[in-house]
Amino acid sequence: MSIKSNYRVKLVCFFLVCFAGACSSIEAKSEKINDVLFGVTLGESSLNSVQDIFGKSLLIKQGDAAYSERFVCYTFSKNSVSQVVVFASDEELAGSPEYTITRVDLYASTQYPYSKDDCLNIGVSEKLADSFIGYTQEEFSAHFGLPVTVINDHYEKMVCHKELITPDSKIYEYWRGRKDCFQVNEEPYIDVCATLKALFKDGMLVKFSLSKVTSVC
Predict the structure, then answer these.
(1) Residue ranges per domain, the chain?
(2) pTM of the predicted model, to two decimals?
(3) Are 82 and 119 in contact (CB under 8 A)?
């Protein structure tokens, strides 16, 4: 089996396990990044469910092969500041037909790198009232409950934790006892990593991204 095929198997296994409610946290007290934004859960919600929440925006595809992704975008306003939110699904990590959300990006409108004409304008939306574009470094830190050190206007933090594959999972027996992956008598687990990135201009947040990656073994 090729490395890419093996990786896809691992990701499929992850979604089978976690969607069935068969994941439990190993490090309950470890530092974590909240993976729910605007009612959308990374690794669980899909592009279809996003469109059900915010409206039928154009489904955009960019890149090809391992770098292909699909996304929908919405323009909106908060406190008279024009903004753009993007919900993206990396096809290598999520795939069809669900197109599970693997990244959420938030921009001040002037920072958005693509055509806003492809985004659905939803005006002033209560569903996006918690947008934190325009936050100061201190407000951003308080919002996520993380210490924030900005270097040259940029901030980036990755937080990883392990989630057990529980015995009621259909793939528990497949992973249990895999000596090439886990130590003797060690319960199989999934590595979950969330990466948060932010860009500040003149002390105010103008660009934000949250992504989530999972792997087994």
Answers:
(1) 3-216
(2) 0.79
(3) no
Task: Determine the Cα angle at 167 with ends 163 and 171, to 5°.
Answer: 80
Diameter over CA atoms, the chain: 58
Give the pairing type, strands 103-108 and 69-78. Answer: unpaired
Cα separation, 122 vs 105, whole angstroms: 16
d(CA 14, CA 10) in angstroms, rounded, equals 6
Strand partners, 156: 197
Residue whose entry in the numeric block shows the structure tokens 């999520």? 94
Residues in the chain with pLDDT < 70?
1-31, 65-66, 92-97
> How far is Cα of residue 159 from the mean position of the Cα atoms in its chain?
12
Residue 14's pLDDT is 38
Q: How far apart are CA 133 and CA 208, in angstroms?
A: 8
Two structure tokens written together for 96: 């069809």
